[in-house]
């Protein structure tokens, strides 16, 4: 079983700051981390490998410092990692990103055919969730998004059973292998890395490819040039005027609030002991 | 590119019913189509869905493309994207909108790749530049700290997924007339690589948040998981559901499915309590359409007060216990339990 997990280095959006004058991102304000959903994707690959055996590769696209997220993935349990890094990839939107990653996956599969690709549901900086299905289309394998459980992997008969989250509830899908999964956080808990993994990770040096290392690449489909979408403008959302502030001491405020709440009698129900 | 014309909305059908977000998009799409002076079309795929076609017209469409086929019984990326791509290549719309549901996002991502066009995710504002015929799809960016307007200048159709419960559906007009176009599609089950084995509905989950009439939601302002207990307590006393911010969920105080916001649930309850929540855009996007919003926060400048109907500047740890006490007293007075059930 050869599982490839696509991972992304992202700024920790919980702490990131926006420059209010230019409306641009102050990337220095936030540490770069392994996208949390991708950590779960790597963890799921480890869980599958523990049952089926095989190899876990990770693939990332980004600047040279993105090797950090590959090393982090090795710490979780990946065996090897690839980073595609080149100015030609810069400024890519989801369409150009899925193109570049699919070209790298084609190269990886030439060496060792891929049985399963796993991605996080989305990256916390872009929040789109579009790259995973995009890769699947380009490789012509079925995408299964919003995965909450991999319940069966049959590598002999080449199929998987997957629980996929739906609007209210879930569905169970059978898919042929190879296929591509995008995983939700609830799929697993990230386990503490065993010491040997940490040592491996510290020593590990990912394979880095530039655009010229990839084959049959149409460069017009890469980076900014290959991206149909652009950011037109950034703005703070329209300020709403806000409502009424309740004044006074805490008790007075609570008193006023109770009045407001009791006005919604249509919603309030009285359950008495004998009703 | 000039040949591309018209606004399309993907109509998602689950269990014989049109998803709410599809009707909302017909409402939003109607405005865009009127500005551009082009027809608004619905695109609906499934099995036995013909009887729903008129509802699409009633909700604002001029025409509906229907593909009714046994292979389309349940949503699968491979069959639906084949259908949608075939139609889009044949009729060439200029704008194509999808609900940002699991299926809508999955489908739109696959279709955008095959049509080699741009797709904006989780849009919350839609407009058009009529002269340039450009869709202006805006969404919270970078974890929801700021809004970004995304444009797709050179590729058609311009596509976007749109958050449920953000746009407004039109009142169904049963006198509206439109054209229903049935499309044939060659699909064979033996070509499919995936199968839906089972669909399991979780009724309780739905009732707990997106359908709740009253939600008590808490943020990091409650200090720690002990402080957050007050949220559960208040919710219990008044019979409300519990929600929280992304921070709270990531801190492990609350389950993922209880997260309200851009990357969590979008909710529109009658009453929404935002307690110890500063009001980051990411959160506000998920609750701003609630009917009555009550904010309690220490910081008088917290942006949550901009969306609140009533605001209390104060310490949640002091205010909330008093509120719980008041409700308990009230219940005693009435000789029973007062609650928002």
Automatic annotation (TrEMBL), chain A:
Residue span, Electron transfer flavoprotein alpha/beta-subunit N-terminal domain: 22-217
The lineage's top-level taxon is: Bacteria
Q: What GO molecular function annotation could you give as one example from this UniProt entry?
A: electron transfer activity
Against Gene3D superfamilies, the record matches this protein to: HUPs (3.40.50.620)
Alphabetical list of SMART domains matching this protein: ETF (SM00893)
| InterPro entries referenced in this protein's UniProt entry, alphabetically | ETF_a/b_N, ETF_b, ETF_beta_N, Rossmann-like_a/b/a_fold
Q: What is this protein called?
A: Electron transfer flavoprotein small subunit
Organism field? Mesobacillus subterraneus
TrEMBL record, chain B:
Question: What does this protein's record comment on cofactor binding?
Answer: Binds 1 FAD per dimer.
Q: Name one GO molecular function term.
A: electron transfer activity
Q: Which CDD domains match?
A: ETF_alpha
Listed A to Z, the keywords are: FAD, Flavoprotein
Q: Which organism is it from?
A: Mesobacillus subterraneus
Name of the protein described by the UniProt record: Electron transfer flavoprotein subunit alpha/FixB family protein
Q: Which SMART domains match?
A: ETF
By its UniProt entry, which SUPFAM superfamilies does this protein fall under?
Adenine nucleotide alpha hydrolases-like, DHS-like NAD/FAD-binding domain
The UniProt entry's GO biological process terms, in alphabetical order, are:
fatty acid beta-oxidation using acyl-CoA dehydrogenase
Residues forming the Electron transfer flavoprotein alpha/beta-subunit N-terminal domain are 7-196
Taxonomically, the superkingdom here is Bacteria
Q: Say if the entry is tagged with keyword Flavoprotein.
A: yes
For activity, the cofactor(s) needed are: FAD
InterPro entries on file? DHS-like_NAD/FAD-binding_dom, ETF_a/b_N, ETF_a/FixB, ETF_alpha_N, ETF_asu_C, Rossmann-like_a/b/a_fold
Residues annotated to bind FAD: 245-246, 259-263, 276-283, 297
Pfam families given in the database record:
ETF, ETF_alpha
Belongs to which family?
Belongs to the ETF alpha-subunit/FixB family.
Q: Please name the Gene3D superfamilies in this protein's record.
A: HUPs, TPP-binding domain
